[in-house]
């Protein structure tokens, strides 16, 4: 799969560096060369160098699936997996925003309150005052973006720590949410609302799921081929054709198996389509644009990025704006799942689950390292644990303890990985 960009730290002035060997090639650019033996050697090299990538998360998901299927016998059924696909959309979209903030080496504690506020604004506008549903949705997301801009202004321009700014936002926007709701404790969603469709609409035609799988597979192949042509044009080592075909085959296999599974229940959920669209769009911005490279640069070393001519304040402000807009969109998904907006929506363990999803998925808490798809992987881990324990009729306190343990393990793995990379000279 893809690898995230990284920022190398500059060598201190006067430090001795080994002369470059003519013709020497960084082995990290030779993935998969030499057939199966080459793949195994590349895998061992990455493990020794602390470049674990998404491997721990994928292994964790497999272990979770095996354990819960053995205990319940229903965890891997199409119905359960389809429900998981729906439930990951809301927190997953919010986790995408948190990933961007973590790439800066910062934290946003306000996303739960922003989610609740956006749901309240949409419900009051659309249900209470009869504003067009689409207009109300756009206004709710715009309000979330405005909240993030306010946070970014105080953090980037004034210099208030992000932790303090967003903690104040967590408290303040919760109050605004209660004020917006007024005397209404809960505003139920009408049956014909677009927001209800976020988690209740399915593309029942089996061709929808298979078409999406085909589009994702072909798109991934085209991206790899384009990257290969660019590297060859620049005279750099590029992936071999066999490597590209193997990677595309694995992606296609996963996509079509998922499509088949979803079609065994009710079809392709709209929630999953929206979530994947957000992931693909943000991943493109982060990995394929100048702005995305600036995010990694600021997160890796803000002062070095500033000296390189990057507008650090602008990057920080816009990242918080995007994160809050995604939190607002995620809040609408939570409202759809709950059947309406309420004064308490966005409270509880929502904030911790969203942050945990980003970290468990592989995004570093130390900034400058991670990838957008961490949001999907981490949310899958948390939702799989929650679903499995619910099938086993476990109490909520057990769920909290297990999720907390998984989060701690993820942070330990990240810390050990960074230490190993420093030892291997990879940071």
Explained architecture:
By secondary structure, this protein is mostly helical. The protein folds into two domains: 54-201 and 271-423, ABC transporter involved in vitamin B12 uptake, BtuC (Orthogonal Bundle), CATH 1.10.3470; 205-265. It has helices at 35-48, 55-72, 78-87, 89-103, 111-128, 133-158, 162-181, 194-200, 206-233, 241-263, 270-288, 290-300, 302-307, 312-338, 350-360, 374-391, 396-423, and strands at 186-188, 202-203, 268-269, 340-342. It has a two-stranded antiparallel sheet. A two-stranded antiparallel sheet has the order 2-3. The radius of gyration is 22 Å and the shape is globular.
Write the layout of secondary structure elements.
Elements lengths: L34 H14 L6 H18 L5 H10 L1 H15 L7 H18 L4 H26 L3 H20 L4 E3 L5 H7 L1 E2 L2 H28 L7 H23 L4 E2 H19 L1 H11 L1 H6 L4 H27 L1 E3 L7 H11 L13 H18 L4 H28 L4
Antiparallel strand pairs: 1-4, 2-3
Provide a quick synopsis of the model.
This protein is an all-alpha fold and 427 residues long.
- Report, as a whole number of angstroms, the end-to-end distance: 21 Å
Structural class of the secondary elements? mainly alpha
Order of helices and strands: HHHHHHHEHEHHEHHHHEHHH
Tell me the count of domains.
Answer: 2
Spans of at least 5 consecutive residues whose pLDDT stays below 50 are 1-32
CATH class of the largest domain, named Mainly Alpha
Determine the strand fraction and express it as a percent band: under 5%
Mean pLDDT: 85
Summed up, the helix count is: 17
Shape: globular
Cα Rg: 22 Å
CATH architecture of the largest domain: Orthogonal Bundle
Largest sheet: 2 strands, antiparallel
């Amino acid at each position: 799969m893809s690898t995230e960009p990284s920022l190398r730290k500059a060598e201190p002035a006067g430090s001795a560096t080994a002369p470059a060997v003519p013709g020497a090639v960084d082995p990290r650019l030779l993935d998969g060369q030499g057939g199966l033996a080459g793949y195994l050697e590349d895998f061992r090299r990455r493990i020794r160098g602390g470049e674990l990538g998404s491997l721990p998360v994928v292994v964790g998901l497999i272990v979770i699936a095996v354990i819960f299927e053995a205990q319940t016998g229903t965890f891997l059924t199409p119905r359960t997996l389809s429900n998981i696909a729906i439930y990951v959309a809301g927190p997953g979209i919010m986790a995408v925003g948190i990933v961007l903030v973590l790439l800066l080496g910062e934290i946003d504690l306000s996303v739960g309150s922003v989610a609740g506020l956006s749901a309240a604004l949409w419900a009051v506008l659309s249900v209470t005052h009869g504003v067009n549903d689409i207009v109300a949705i756009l206004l709710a997301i715009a309000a979330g973006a405005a909240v993030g801009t306010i946070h970014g202004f105080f953090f980037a321009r004034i210099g208030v720590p992000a932790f303090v700014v967003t903690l104040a936002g967590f408290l303040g926007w919760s109050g605004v949410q209660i004020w917006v709701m007024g005397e209404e404790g809960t505003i139920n969603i009408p049956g014909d609302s677009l927001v209800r469709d976020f988690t209740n609409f399915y593309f029942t035609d089996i061709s929808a799921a298979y078409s999406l799988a085909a589009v994702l597979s072909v798109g991934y192949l085209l991206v790899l081929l384009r990257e290969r042509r660019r590297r060859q044009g620049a005279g750099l080592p590029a992936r071999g054709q066999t490597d590209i075909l193997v990677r595309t085959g694995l992606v296609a296999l996963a996509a079509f198996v998922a499509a088949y599974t979803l079609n065994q229940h009710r079809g392709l959920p709209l929630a999953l389509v929206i979530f994947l669209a957000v992931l693909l769009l943000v991943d493109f911005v982060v990995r394929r644009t100048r702005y995305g490279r600036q995010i990694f640069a600021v997160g890796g070393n803000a002062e070095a990025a500033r000296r390189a001519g990057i507008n650090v304040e602008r990057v920080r402000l816009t990242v918080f704006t995007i994160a809050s807009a995604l939190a607002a969109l995620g809040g609408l998904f939570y409202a759809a799942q709950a059947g309406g907006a309420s004064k308490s929506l966005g409270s509880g363990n929502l904030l911790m689950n969203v942050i945990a999803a980003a970290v468990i998925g592989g995004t570093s808490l130390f900034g400058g390292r991670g990838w957008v798809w961490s949001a999907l992987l981490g949310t899958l881990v948390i939702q799989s644990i929650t679903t499995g324990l619910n099938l086993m009729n476990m109490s909520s306190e057990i769920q909290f303890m297990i999720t907390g343990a998984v989060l701690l393990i993820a942070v330990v793995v990240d810390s050990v990985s960074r230490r190993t990379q420093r030892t291997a000279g990879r940071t």
